[in-house]
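Tokens for chain A. Residues wanted.
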């Protein structure tokens, strides 16, 4: 049996940026000791505060299309889901979301969607330029899935500066359990390399507790994060969606998600790390718990209210009332209850801050 001293030694080792062995990572990943978990989160907060102070960056999430050519087994907007009501926002609608968001204090807009062929490079580049023209002090983040390198380059040239593409799992066999054969692990990984080479601030990440996920898979995810050194990491619990092939599987847990957030903060001290909507969905205080585990970003929904219920990646996704960007003031209160504060800043990764200011 491992004792408390052993675990605090591991946490300190992580904080000092010393490499853990596979056995040591596994010990932390399987540890359920409350004191250890408190200590881990306390050190994660210290590292976050050292790098980003008490600031919480907010990103206005605009879910601009739920048409998707892919058929990921976990996702509610997969092409095979005939019950999904499809929609696509117009350029004017998207620009209106950004302008409204800017008024509310947002300085980053995240365009997220399914892989929708309507949005060609030309259309997206024009959209990005239009956003940059209306909100020149704001960053544009894309979360639009896999494309080819020249496409990523055109969108970067149009002004997008960040890109989120979760790797979903760093284990190829596990990737193949979550995706149909027409999708490939190697292409997703290639996309991440292409995004990095293009000059984006890049975000990757995995679902926590996805069907078939083991501790060994999570260890591989952590090793991948260590090697890739992303500027952003998005992790959240898997949550079943009733019209998908993985409908019958249980959701990931708050405990494992907050533990991973804290480990990732220690592994990548300057990483931009959101407390995600999925975490806020499985627990009404999930996002506060995420902030207390080392997260420093929130991504409230800025999509028009009428389409929010249609972007159902998973069941019971929080998308109305308090969670919505209109209620930013109550969100600000929730954040201050954790001792942190929402700020009106772009919130670039520290290594990119000089280039953008
Ligand atoms: N099409 C884009 C955006 C995907 S949606 C892309 O491929 O990158 C953003 C993220 O939502 C996905 O990367 C996935 O990790 C997450 N997601 C999808 N379905 C989910 C589910 N059922 N539970 C939890 N997270 C889910």
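Reply:
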């Amino acid at each position: 049996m491992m004792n408390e001293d052993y675990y605090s030694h591991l946490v300190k080792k992580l904080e000092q940026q010393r490499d853990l062995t596979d056995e040591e990572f596994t010990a932390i990943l399987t540890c359920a000791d409350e004191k250890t978990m408190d200590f881990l989160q306390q050190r994660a907060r210290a590292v976050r505060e050292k790098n980003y102070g008490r600031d919480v960056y907010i990103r206005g999430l605009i879910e601009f299309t739920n048409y998707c050519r892919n058929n990921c087994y976990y996702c509610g907007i997969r092409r095979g889901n005939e019950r999904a009501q499809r929609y696509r926002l117009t350029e004017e609608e998207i620009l209106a979301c950004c302008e409204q968001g800017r008024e509310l204090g947002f300085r980053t807009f995240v365009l997220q969607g399914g892989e929708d062929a309507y949005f060609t490079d030309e259309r997206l580049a024009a959209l990005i330029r239009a956003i940059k023209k209306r909100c020149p002090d704001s960053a544009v983040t894309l979360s639009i899935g896999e494309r080819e390198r020249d496409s990523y380059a055109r969108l970067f040239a149009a002004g997008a500066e960040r890109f989120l593409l979760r790797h979903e799992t760093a284990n190829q066999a596990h990737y193949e359990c979550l995706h149909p054969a027409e999708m490939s692990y190697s292409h997703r990984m290639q996309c991440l390399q292409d995004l990095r080479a293009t000059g984006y601030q890049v975000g990757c990440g995995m679902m926590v507790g996805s069907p078939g996920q083991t501790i060994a898979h999570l260890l591989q995810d952590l090793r991948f994060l260590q090697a890739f050194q992303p500027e952003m990491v998005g992790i959240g619990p898997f949550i079943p969606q009733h019209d998908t092939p993985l409908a019958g599987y249980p959701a990931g847990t708050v405990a494992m998600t907050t533990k991973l957030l804290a480990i990732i903060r220690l592994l990548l001290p300057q990483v931009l790390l959101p407390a995600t909507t999925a975490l806020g969905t499985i627990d009404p205080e999930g996002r506060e718990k995420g902030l207390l585990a080392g997260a420093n970003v929130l991504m409230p929904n800025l999509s028009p209210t009428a389409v929010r219920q249609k972007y159902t990646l998973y069941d019971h996704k929080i998308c109305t009332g308090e969670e919505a960007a209109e209620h930013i003031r109550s969100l600000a209160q929730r954040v201050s209850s954790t001792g942190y504060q929402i700020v009106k800043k772009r919130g670039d990764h520290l290594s990119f801050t000089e280039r953008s200011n």
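The first strand starts at residue 55 and ends at 58. Residues 54-356 form a domain with the TIM Barrel fold (CATH 3.20.20.70).
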